[in-house]
Amino acid sequence: MMDEAQEDLLEHEDISQKPLSSPYNIPPLRSTRLQIQKSNVCSRAYFVVVMVFFHVYILNVIALLLYVHYNNGPGDLVSGDGASPAPVINTDRRLPQPAPSGRELHVEEYSQSFSLHRMEGIRVGHVQHVSVVPDRTHEMKTLSLKPLLFEIPGFLSEEECRVVVQLAQLKGLMDSQAATPSQDQTELNQPLLSLSTEEVFHLLDLNQDGFLQKQEIVSHSRSRDGTWLSPDNLRQTLTGLEASPTGILTLGEFRRVYDVSQRPRQQQSGSLHSHFKQRNRHTWLFQGLGSHRVLQTLRKRVIALTRLPSALLELSEPLQVSRYEHGDFTNAHYDSSSSQSETTCAHTRLAGNMSALTEVSCRYLTVLFYLSSVEEGGESTFPVADNRTYDEQALVQDGVDLTDTQQACGKGNLKLTPTAGTALLWYNHLSDGRGWMGELDEYSLHGDCPVKRGVKWVASSWVNVDPDHQQQARYQRLVAQRHQAKSGMDEHYQSLSHSDLHLDL
Q: What's this model's pTM, rounded to 2 decimal places?
């Protein structure tokens, strides 16, 4: 720039020293060039400013498009092939993971990183203090070691008991579906239709080849439109089929197996172990997000009491509330079921064995809440609690079946009077020695004596656990993925309906 200025100055001096050769008044050349230079500078600055604003605008538009895409686009959704969704920003809405650490739990890590807590009973009559609410402790008394049974007085307040009862009444109660003396059907394992053995055989023989294969029996058990054979019939038939050297059943072989399965259980086992009967009314109360505060508080207390991961309880059955009026009862029974190859747990059926004959309840433990006191009767009975040995034959005393609470409620080993606010906790399964759920505890047999005066309200909270810890892990991971997918969908549509980003564009 300095060189150009000096050249202009020299040129100006040369021109000024020369005489004018033209009669016209021509402006000095220096002035003209200076005017042209000023015009170029203005044009160049204007162009630079325009380009800067244009590029900033383009960058803002691109940034806004990227923001809309990654926050409202398909990145938050689960793809159709089942791929895992993108992480949800609101972590409070995510389903808790099985492990306390909260990280994703892999099947191969499950046995090492997760186990089921089990309280120690010490001895019958032992009292220990537990904390389930802030600034307060409860006394927990060991009532028996077989099964491991505890009593916690004052677990619920009178107000909380009243709220749960009122919620159950608002929800509406239904009659129990098990057989009662007032029903004409006296045997639960009798077929609903009167069919001959030959007719049953031909109905099971799907391909009509004159033989029964295992798959044909399994296919019948998975029917969703009702079944005309009871689980006992199916189990007996499957047992006979597996015992056959050929692996199939002819009509003659099926006739022998089926006739045995049709006999009452008393003739099969040689004991008087009666069929399960009950008479009461009940309903189910959901305890998740959106439920009443008392119901959510009750679940949190159970989590604190059992010291089990919250995911197990959140994926377990809802709270069952039952009402027993005069004469209502429940025969002695097991809350859970023993593990068998032909059954699958009802709560993990999404990830279960589709070839299983029947679905059964798998309940690691039971927490029973007394919501009211009873004037007379209505006791909870554990007929064989703390027996030295368990023998089904020992359930029969002087010709009376101890499981029949209507006839032998007073003969059981342990009988508990309902008191409003008291909770009972017992384990339905033994430990497998590796921190997981083992075999069914046969001493957990329990029932409800008939109510003689007053009304009995109880609530049952079950913790569902699959004996196969890998299947339990698969189920929890599957539910977590579906929950995250649903959360992503909710956030996607919520952002589309409440955002003005598209209007800004």
A: 0.64
